[in-house]
């Protein structure tokens, strides 16, 4: 992890100008004088992007669980598919989950009425979340 360098006292450049200096290849004493790391904090936006990715994965986990419960309720005829609200919710959940579940179902052997693809997708999502939290997120730590 890099230590944060103090901002230059007498140089008052904008981040855009500092980026141009980096892009043009400022090196040596001039680059040290400008203290380019103070102008380009790249770690904070990356942490925000990772937080959004983790939030999306968490929401998709809930969508998968709701889809599985709704499929059981429809299979055991607890709720009726002829209801317009149930049909629209079921169509929305299928539109969200089927693009990721279909390739998993193709690779799994036929097990009759048991569908293990949501479980496998949930395990993959949990694995991806743990990789992000334990390995990727700490590399973009605070200064």
In words, what does this structure look like?
This protein is an all-alpha fold. The chain is built from 6 helices and no strands. The chain has helices at 15-24, 29-34, 36-39, 43-75, 84-107, 117-136. It is elongated and about 60 Å long. The relative contact order is 0.11.
Brief descriptors of the model:
6 helices, elongated, 143 residues, mainly alpha
Strand content: under 5%
- Our Rg estimate from Cα atoms comes to 25 Å
What is the number of strand segments? 0
* Structural class designation: mainly alpha
Give the number of domains. Answer: 2
Oligomer: single chain
Low-confidence stretches: 18-26, 35-40
Query: Span from first to last CA?
Result: 8 Å
Order of helices and strands: HHHHHH
Helix share of residues?
55-70%
| Overall average residue pLDDT | 80
Using the alpha-carbon principal axes, give the shape. Answer: elongated
Q: Mind summarizing the main beta sheet?
A: none
What is the number of helical segments per DSSP (H or I, 4+ residues)?
6
Question: Can I get a quick summary?
Answer:
With 143 residues, the chain is an all-alpha fold. It is built from six helices and no strands. The longest helix has 33 residues, at 43-75.
Task: Give the topology.
Layout: H1 15-24, H2 29-34, H3 36-39, H4 43-75, H5 84-107, H6 117-136
